[in-house]
Structure formats: C-alpha cells, structure tokens
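Example record

One chain of 180 residues, shown exactly as stored in the release files.
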Amino acid sequence: MTTMLSKPMTPRVQARVRDLQRVMNSLIEQYRRLLEVLQAKLQAMRQSHTEAMQQWVEQENNLTRQIQQTEGLWRQLLGATGRDLGISEVQVSRLSLSGLAPYIDSQRLATLRGLGVQLSQVAREVSKVNTVIKMVGQEILHHYRWIFQQLTSNLDDSGVYSPIRGTRTALRPQMVDATG
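Predicted structure tokens for this chain:
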C-alpha cells in the first residue's frame, strides 16, 4: 500500500518521524515497566505487605511522572512535525498520528501505526490492573474499618477504673477517616 504524500517528506520531517518512533518505543517500554510494577504492587496488597506496597507505590509514581514527561515530548514532537509540514496552528493543536498519515510515506506510517497498536494494548493492560488494584484497595479498607468497629464496639459499655475517681465510662476512640 503506497500513501500518496500531499507534500514530500523533507529530511527534517523524516528526522521528526524517527524521533516520534523513538518516543513511542520509549512510551511502550515505560508502560510495560509500569505494568510490572502494578502487578507487583497488587501482589503485595494481596499479601498485606505494607513495606513492599510503599516501595511499589513510589516506583509507580516515578514511572507515572516519566510517562507524563514522555507523553509531553510526544505532543511537542507531533506539533513540531505538523508545523514543519505546513499544517495550520489550529490543526496542529488537535493533530494526531492519523492526521499525519497523508504526509508520511507508507513504510514509516505502518511502523508508527504498529507502535500505536502496541502502546494501546499495554495501556489497556495497565488500566485493567489499576481497576483490580482499586477494587482490592476498597476491600482492604472495608476490612480494616470492620476490624476497627469490632475492636471499639464494646468500649461504650465498658468502664475504666481509677483509684481516684472510681469506675467511669471509657471514652470511645476517635478515628479520622481520610478516605472519604
């Protein structure tokens, strides 16, 4: 399949397309690492291993920041490529890989689309694991609330003895619920 180019690819545009490919490969790798970290975090959650969970959350946050920076670079490169091709600023602001299709030769376009498919697949996997993590986290929170309720339910009726004041009603512990 040959793409009819609306404008010949200059060496600068060819270099930008190679840069877009490199950035997409980087994003795919970052998302794969994020997926591994999320799977490890989920395992730590299932085992109630709080130290491991903290370590995995820290790695997750670092990877998320890296991904955001790389996605920002992708948008900048996409915009610069569009401007190099003479695409209007209004169109550049909404430019996607599909919008570059008329300007890129079929081989490079096929490579970029293939990378796009890989990126979409791994991003979907990350999303699925995040959904499971959220559900497990909610169940853990529910479990700990239940435990706290069980531990404190009899305190209203129990008394506390003091040699000075005798027996008096215990104060119910207060728990700050920061989870919403």
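Notes: The chain has a mean pLDDT of 85.
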